[in-house]
Design a protein that fits this description.
mainly alpha, single chain, 1 helix
Length: 91
Amino acid sequence: MMRDQDEQLDGVFTTVGNLRRQADDMGRELEEQVEMLGAVDTLADRVGSRLQTGLQKLGYVVRQNEDRYSGCCVALLITVLTVLLVLLLIL
């Protein structure tokens, strides 16, 4: 009877030891994944910041070109209308 209890306790002890080793392995794995996720997060922040800066610069260029081309188009249309009016008056 005592011997059976000792064997059962030895089995429980072995099982608990195995569980502890597995928990330690999982803990190390989680620590490694946390480090990798931190690196990915830092890289994603850096890329996001660069993308935001690029979008701002692109928006600025688009606004500048819209204003410039709008002014050119208006000036061209005024010139064409003036020429048409002069031709209409002459003919």
